[in-house]
Design brief:
Blueprint: E1 4-5, H1 11-20, H2 26-37, H3 51-57, E2 61-62, E3 70-73, E4 79-84, E5 90-97, E6 103-107, E7 110-112, E8 127-130, H4 133-144, E9 151-154, H5 164-175, E10 187-191, H6 195-204, E11 208-212, H7 218-224, H8 227-230, H9 233-242, E12 251-257, H10 265-274, E13 280-286, H11 300-312, E14 316-319
Parallel strand pairs: 1-2, 6-9, 9-10, 10-11, 11-12, 12-13, 13-14
Antiparallel strand pairs: 3-4, 4-5, 5-6, 7-8
Helix pairs in contact: 1-2, 4-5, 6-9, 10-11
The protein binds iron/sulfur cluster.
Length: 344
Amino acid sequence: MSPVDLKNLTPEQLTEFLQGLGKEAFRARQLLRWIYKRGVCDLAAMTDLSKVLREDLAGRAMISNWEPETVQVSRDGTRKYLFRLADGETVETVRIPMEGGRSTLCISSQVGCAMQCSFCLTGSFGLTRNLTIAEIVNQVCAARKDGPVNNIVLMGMGEPLHNLDNVIGALKILYAPEGFDYSPRRVTLSTSGLVPQMEELGCRVRVGLAVSLTAANDALRDRLMPINRRYPLDQLMTACRNYPLKPGERITFEYILLRGVNDAVADARELVRLLHGVKAKVNLIAFNEYAGSPFQTPDDRTIRRFQTFLLDHGLVAVRRASKGRDILAACGQLKGELENCTCP
Ligand code: SF4
């Protein structure tokens, strides 16, 4: 039997695994601290584990440890990591610098994506496979070698709710006090709108929710995001209204502005109507053009007019700086094939 990658086990599963070997529960906490707090992946280096435990684990368990195959650094300091997986597939992770020396890590949950949003490069490649728990948390482990990561967003390649069990497993490691010890307030998951999985997510784990909206009526959203044909806006908005939020929390609605498609004042008016009564914050993101893309970036004046309309009608609307523009690291533009990258 091939050895178990301990990063593929949630804290509970790790405890059970060790109990199966006749070990005490506190051993799991020791292992978690070594792996995630100290970043040590060599069992022999875990000096406070007994020699017997280390010998018992050797052969039965291993701990994967990633190094990026390439790192691209943008002019604004954004770093895009490319990791090659054991089966030869690739996945991308982006570290985005924030004010005050903080940073947000955008991680991937799948190789490719099945959702086929028309403005997204990842979607145009289709889905290859889900990432394992270890492959999700290893993106965080590897990026933290470059410095602290303050916030995590599941907004990279893939639809996280299409890989729900592994994503929830990874969240448990992110939140475990002996693991990464992130507060759920620091972690956000972005979905294209898989309604049943949104409901399940809210019941199983706490995480900030972002919904990739991009259109405020069904006709346009059907065209831009095919998932809307299965779960139209009334179902999506009901799921958003029912999503469990703590006081002061809001759902983030991402709206990618596409020139001449969804950037008119009439579109802003529809958005205001759609979000009426929802605890919402709107992130406006100017489309990041790439070679061969069917859409263009709106001009600055149009974006400001759209944002002003939302603000004037009582919505929280933030214009999100498009970081990493020069290395194609914006939302929905990770593709796992840097060799085909058309950026300068
Ligand atoms: Fe998938 Fe997100 Fe791209 Fe849509 S925008 S195709 S959900 S990766």
